[in-house]
């Protein structure tokens, strides 16, 4: 079945319309649309199918749409909280059900919790290269990771971006503070990997 879209006309959602009907309506790149599967409205030029088939030129990302440092920091805190919660639960279940010796329990707990930083890297790679383009923390803050053209990043680029965080941390976190000194609010690892963090705008 062909994809259909809800189109906002004069401030009111109307449709659904087929792609041919959207063409007849002469929609503009900045018109808000959504599919039945989408949670939120987006501008037409932000949807790859519409941008390609309707011939929209992709405009440069606007400055006010970049994710701010405080949003990114809070998203990171939320992600750490989520991961620690998951691994604390795993450690509790493993220790309680499978280990009887007290010293072994303590050692096993430390080993499981020590995996968290490595799990966080894998988690970021998977989530940021997924269709959501964001970790759960970023999704809560309505921000996502894109390439320099505003498109979804590949797994390879996600790996590169997250490995480059070593340099952001290795500079005594100065690499993160670079976000305050450039218009696109990129941290050092974003600059190295060619990525941006932008706001996932809502209607």
Rg (C-alpha, Å): 21 Å
Sheet with the most strands, sense and barrel status: 4 strands, antiparallel
Mean pLDDT: 88
* Physical arrangement of strands within the biggest beta sheet: 2-1-3-4
Q: Which structural class fits the helix and strand makeup?
A: alpha+beta
How do the SSEs run, as a string of H and E? EEHEEHHHHHEHHHHE
Can you tell me about this structure?
The chain is α+β, with helices and mostly antiparallel strands and 203 residues long. 48% of the residues lie in helices and 13% in strands. The chain is built from ten helices and six strands. A four-stranded antiparallel beta sheet has the order 2-1-3-4. A hairpin with a 2-residue loop joins strand 1 and strand 2. Helix 3 packs antiparallel against helix 4 and helix 5 runs antiparallel to helix 7. The two termini are 26 Å apart. The model has no long low-confidence stretch (mean pLDDT 88).
Features:
alpha+beta; 203 residues; two-stranded antiparallel sheet; 6 strands; single chain
């Amino acid at each position: 079945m062909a994809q259909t879209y809800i189109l906002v006309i004069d401030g009111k959602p109307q449709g659904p319309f087929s792609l041919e009907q959207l063409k007849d309506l002469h929609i503009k790149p900045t018109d808000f649309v959504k599919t039945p599967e989408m949670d939120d409205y987006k501008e037409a030029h932000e949807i790859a199918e519409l941008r390609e088939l309707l011939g929209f030129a992709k405009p440069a990302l606007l400055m006010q749409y970049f994710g701010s440092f405080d949003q990114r920091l809070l998203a990171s805190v939320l992600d750490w909280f989520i991961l620690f919660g998951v691994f604390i639960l795993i450690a509790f279940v493993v220790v309680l059900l499978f280990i009887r010796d007290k010293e072994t329990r303590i050692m096993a707990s430390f080993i499981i919790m020590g995996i968290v930083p490595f799990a966080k890297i894998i988690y970021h790679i998977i989530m940021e290269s997924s269709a959501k383009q964001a970790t759960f923390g970023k999704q809560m803050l309505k921000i996502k990771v894109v390439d320099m053209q505003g498109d979804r990043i590949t797994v390879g680029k996600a790996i590169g971006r997250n490995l480059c965080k070593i340099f952001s941390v290795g500079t005594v976190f100065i690499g993160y503070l670079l976000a305050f000194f450039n218009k696109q609010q990129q941290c050092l690892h974003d600059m190295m990997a060619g990525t941006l963090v932008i706001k996932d705008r809502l209607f």
